[in-house]
Amino acid sequence: MSSRIPTSTSVTESAVINAPLSSVWHLIKLQDFHQFWTKLSKSEHVKGTSPETDVIKWTFKDGTVLDVKQEEHSTIDHYITYSVIASTPALSYSSVISTIRCYSVTSGPQEGSTFVQWSGNFSSDADAGVIEDARFKRKEALADLTKAVSK
To answer: Which positions ≥6 away from 35 have C-beta within 8 Å?
Structure first.
């Protein structure tokens, strides 16, 4: 019998950002995440991949390096989906696919703002620590995004 605590393998965090959709969406490009996410030192295209594949290398300030592959992108519906295809150091789980969606707030006291949702779906071998870390990083990145568009 396993001593592992069963846990959900998905995470979703969100924020309402007091800026128009166009200002927020402008930063939601994998190669531009370093412009708002303070944990990243750089994000750059990986050379040598096929022309049909968008792979971006995220280098974090703590030395972690992730290669992320853009799986979907919609400028009409304002979302991107990406997966982690390589990591140094190696990840403790098999896979994750994440989506960031942006919605214009069209009524109410926050009309003209942007609702941003960042979800992640992990493979079943991800443990509770992985999920909590993902939750924390998304909250932190959303706070950084809020600061970046309010400059």
So the answer is: 27, 148
Tokens of 106: 């069209």
* Tens digit of each residue's pLDDT (9 = 90 or more) over 118-148: 999 999 999 999 999 999 999 999 999 999 9
Encode pLDDT of 63-120 as tens digits: 999 999 999 999 999 999 999 999 999 999 999 999 999 999 999 999 999 999 999 9
How far is 35 from 145, CA to CA, in rounded Å? 9
Residue pair 102/24 in contact by the 8 Å Cβ criterion = yes
pTM over 0.70: yes
Burial status of residue 53 (CB atoms within 10 A of its CB: 0-12, 13-18, 19 or more)? exposed
* CA gap 53, 25 in Å, rounded: 21
**Is the four-CA dihedral 65, 12, 121, 123 of positive or negative sign?**
positive
Quote helix, strand, coil % in the chain, to nearest 5.
20, 40, 40
CA dist 95 and 13 (Å) reads 19
Q: Which two tokens stand for residue 84?
A: 């982690």
